[in-house]
Amino acid sequence: MLQTLINAFKVKEIRRKVYMMLLLLLVFRIGCFIPVPGLIRSTFESFVDSGANDFLALMSGVTGGALSQGTLFALGIGPYINASIIMQLLGVGIPALENLSKQGEEGRKKISQYTRYLTIVLAVVQSIGIIVSFANSQNALDTQFFFGSKFLTGAFMTIMYTAGALLVMWLGERITDYGVGNGQSMIIFVGIIATAGELLLNKIRNFGTDDAGVKSIVSVVVFVLVAIVIFFAIVYVDLSERRVPVQYAKQIKGRKMYGGQSSNIPIRIAGSGVMPLIFSFSILSFPQLIASMVKNGDNGFARWWAQWMSGSSTNDWGVFVYSTVLCLLIFAFSFFYAQMQFNPEDVSKNIQQNGGFIQGIRPGKATENYLKKISNRITLFGAIYLSLIAFVPSVVFSFVSLDLVNVFSTTGILIVVSCAMEFEKQLQAQLMMKNYKGFLK
After folding, report:
1. pLDDT score recorded for residue 23
2. Do residues 59 and 286 lie in contact, with contact meaning Cβ atoms separated by under 8 Å?
3. Which of 89, 91, 109 has its CA nearest to residue 99?
4. Region of residue 410 (phi > 0: left; psi between -120 and 50: alpha; otherwise: beta)
5. Is this model's pTM higher than 0.90 or not?
């Protein structure tokens, strides 16, 4: 990774792209500190950081603390990510969207435009949900700038948060166009790193006191060692893949001979990435968000859900039920996303059309069943891996410091590793293209 960065900065074009990416990320971080009138931040921040809602605590960590502080970029890139996921799911079930995705560049532009429209809708809904269910129920609305009207206060905050989410979406798209790598992933990466850095700095500031200082030093040292071990394990599994060998027969077309070579089909263990985790946590947190909007969250369903279906439940059986349901959802979405990314039927047809075959397996239906069997086995191990990632880091870091659990747990740790690896791959691809250009010249 370090050598790749050094080589990238030696090339003027790539260096310019990296500087552009850093400049746009700096604009994003500045927006995370711009206050929005209408919210008593101390009350709202204490409520979000208390862990009463697991999904809000996670989203606050992803946005670099902007959500808990109620700033302009409080929603972050979340609405756009959710809109992209929904469009992917609809693309599987709606033939019209599926046909658009196969129409090349024009079809992708239309899908991107639909994704932006859906982002606006989700940003408005999410803004209203946060303001009504949490800020208002905790008496955290400040109406002194809006003639004492809660409606005007909520409407203004909804407009500002929606505008902030759209601006973050625009920054992500500009990073993708003029920077290096995926802009949305880099924004999430920077948000998590910023939150983790702030927590670590707070620990370091406590070094001056006696008892708290010793405890802070021990917690930081143990945290760094444990984080290195977990990062290594995640990278090791994330790079693991099953390679299915494919042999292509020789074909004579005109005066030239094609084929006669061997290749392989890589099937990754963690091919679905972090999406099953995000979807599982969203589904378990959404009912709690809706229930808290009714009667200021003081109702039987909200209390039952917080006791039995919340990760922060004080009931041991509630934690067990929550963990079981979460694992089942992770398994279900892992297999669902595996089918979206790797279709054995399409792969089998492509192999057969190009004159290829898997040794010992008949082309056609037999090859499809063979690939499906391998994919299901690998997906099973990937689902088990994601289930362990969902709980092991949280348990390990809770022994070190409870402050670090919300950031370095579940999706946070996977997003950091995945974004870093994706950034390195993009740099290597840019360097390779530059070398090819130089060779052709």
Report:
1. 92
2. no
3. 91
4. left
5. no
